[in-house]
Amino acid sequence: MWKAIILIGGPDKGTRFRPLSLDIPKPLFPVAGLPMVQHHIEACCQVPEIKEILLIGFFPLSDELKNFLAYAKKAFTPSIRYLQEYTSLGTGGGLYHFRDQISAGSPSAFLVFNVDVCCNFPLQDILHFHSSKTADDGITIVATEATHQESMSYGCLVEDKKTGEATHYVEKPETFVSSLINCGVYVFSQKVLQYMENVFKEHQSERFDGGDNGSDSSFTERISLEKDILYPYAGSGKMFVYKTKEVWGQIKSAASAIHANKLYLSLYHKTNPGRLAVGGDKQTPTIIGDVFIHKNAEVHSTAVIGPNVTIDERVVIGPGVRVSNSIVLPGAVLKDHSCVLNSIIGWESTVGQWSRVEGTAHQPDPNTQFSKIVSGGLFNEDGRLCPSITVLGRQVTVAPEIVVLNSIVLPNKAIQSSSKNLIIL
Ligand code: GDD
Ligand code: GTP
Questions:
Q1: Fewer CB atoms < 10 Å away: N or C end of the chain?
Q2: 94 part of a folded domain
């Protein structure tokens, strides 16, 4: 029996994802028509040996989270539970804090995922690799190639090519270490939890040796999976690298959500072709490339949609509308002949007739092998907003016949005039 753990973080995470994460916990943001975390859950459901999925994070139990958990418990076979940290315990602290629940039923191993990665998880293969390579105290770390420059934004691994062993690990190094990066997907054997106990005890004694007898126990409970576990495990002969050439990306900024949307839609060809919209008759809109249209959305037959578009539930799209490379969130209305390119249209927002909402798409560099999408800051060195996708927050109204270009619009705004490269507060 195996278990899966998804690290979903908490409200002070996902800052680069604002304003979208103001309205919804980031792990529930819909990508390719499903909450981000549901892609992980569905991948786990393909592996019959995974009997339980634990979501670990420090989000308060909001209505959205409760509703999602209630839905997931009914919809999926493995048991699904949310374990809430009392404060941010870091990427490893939650695993240690909930060690009894994780080891209940004696799983032979447990998978751990960062929620903000998107990939075609070859889980069966990864688990098989883990069983064949490691003993009962080992770690398998899923890795992929990145460019030299980009690798430094990730955990970097050095591998012994003959044995597959990870001989060195550095989290976000300042100078180049290796182009092999940590994908945020791991398999841990049970005994790694015992190792965490040593880390916990060390932190505790450091705290007392330092003369700190304060009451903040979260300080000692905070464990970084990357720095406190992976770093010392590298070179010990117990950590192995599973290399993947599958589609992989991180979801940090709104622009990277558009890219992840594209990746997941393309994966539907393999995993779930029925989810992709098909056009071709007079009653349906023209569909270009990969498109997801929710069954409760209303899209006029003269609209042209795609490629890489998600139209979520209760969306209404009028005649002559053009949408490409965008996510249109639940309840949004795109009025007649409006045009939405490289954008995210927030919940219950309205784009007026003949208006144009357009952003600049971020793509991995097509001329560089292994390039990934870079989720840098919002502003460039001279303090200007970097051209990126346009994001309309919740309940934004864009008046008819105006242009909104490369802008971020916070929730509940009424946009009456055209704007370019602006954050509208
Ligand atoms: N439960 C819990 N508690 N989860 C957390 C916490 C916490 O206190 N802090 C972060 N997480 C979750 C996040 O939700 C995310 O899923 C994951 O842990 C990693 O988040 P970050 O700490 O923001 O790290 P990162 O995304 O910059 O880098 C990590 O992922 C890269 C791959 O995407 C590292 O693991 C890198 O080594 C790796 O390359
Ligand atoms: P690039 O290779 O990116 O230059 O693509 P493109 O010139 O085909 O088009 P662009 O990215 O500007 O727009 C994507 C699609 O939207 C194209 O198919 C355009 O025909 C269509 N489009 C662009 N502007 C409008 C508009 O104002 N109204 C409508 N209905 N469609 C538009």
A1: C
A2: yes
Surface-to-core class of residue 413, CB atoms within 10 Å of its CB (0-12 exposed, 13-18 middle, 19+ buried): middle
Give pairs for 364-372: CB < 8 Å, separation 24+.
364/259, 365/147, 368/147, 369/145, 369/147, 370/144, 370/145, 370/146, 370/147, 370/179, 371/146, 371/147, 371/150, 372/146, 372/147, 372/150, 372/248, 372/249, 372/250
Ligand lying closest to the C-alpha of residue 7: 1
How many structural domains does the chain have? Answer: 2
Same domain, yes or no, for 379 and 330?
yes
Q: Is 350 in the pocket of ligand 2 (CB under 6 A)?
A: no
Of the three residues 214, 235, 250, the one that is the final residue of a domain is: 250
Query: What are the pLDDT digits (tens) for 311-366?
Result: 999 999 999 999 999 999 999 999 999 999 999 999 999 999 999 999 998 777 77
As for the ipTM of the complex, it is: 0.81
Give the structural domain span for 338.
276-420
What pTM did the predictor assign? 0.91
Q: Whose CA is nearest to atom 27 of ligand 2?
A: 339
Atom in ligand 1 nearest the alpha carbon of residue 113: 16
